[in-house]
């Protein structure tokens, strides 16, 4: 994610992710309440996986603190204390995150009438959630929002040339992606998500829960997904830079995004096969591409403005991957091109992302 607090930073361009946390608040609240009332821990360990450096992890923590304060209103004895761990990859801007936490703690956000916030402690935890992060049976609640569509790596074979790169000038699955390359993306999802479930199962206490929210696909057709459309435009923007001589063709052909948007059925299949979690609920909802467009109609009111908003959001998410592979100089021309393609797409129709939200219980 783009670091800092500037115009192009993740923290200034994460309104879509914020709305998703607000949308999934009832799921977070139910899971928190159920774990707390069933287990009555003296210290409740809560983890936000893929917290980033923006304001959204603070929103998650304040939701949890509000629920626990409410639960403890009338209880006697020692009040529960909360230990939050905020996890992300080591490259995450943890300094920015802890500056934001300091402001949050002194802003009085927690002071709601009738609520005495429980004592809480907040620690950062750098590391990949595709590894073990906690001792066995130590965590009560895991949360992860807008992360698990990211794979642990680019699917095998896609970024190495035997004779020709497998996914040509695509960066994700599009109509010209071969069935073999599609299978590589699907297998990477299956492998990563199964591993993630196994690791968290080890770390959760019995009765512990996970609330997982990530981008997915509305239809079963793997070529017709909402992410396919969005990243299809990223690929077309890169292709136009190749034509302008700003990007080498081979550089584009060796670039693929470590991402996969599964359908609800695919997610359910992995959870069922794992036999280690029961599914309390799963739902899919849709969100406009433009994070500032809350309208529900089929028309986009201002496609030029919306396309800029989409471009800023996607730039803040892809910045480090793009710089790492192509260098920094292509960022501006790439996202000018991308914004123009998004504007054309939005002039034709309102375009949405599919978000999958679920609550799982360790069995
Ligand atoms: C789009 S951001 C979402 C951040 C935040 N949860 C929110 O709702 O705004 C995705 C985050 O997932 C993190 N991430 C991706 N893969 C990860 C991994 N394997 N382990 C830990 N964090 C990861 C990224 O670094 C990034 O900060």
TrEMBL record:
Pfam families: Methyltransf_7 (PF03492). Coiled coil: none annotated. The keyword Magnesium applies. Keywords: Magnesium, Metal-binding. GO terms for molecular function: metal ion binding; S-adenosylmethionine-dependent methyltransferase activity. GO terms for biological process: methylation. PANTHER family: S-ADENOSYL-L-METHIONINE:CARBOXYL METHYLTRANSFERASE FAMILY PROTEIN. Belongs to the methyltransferase superfamily. Type-7 methyltransferase family. SABATH subfamily. This is Benzoate carboxyl methyltransferase. It comes from Setaria italica (Foxtail millet).
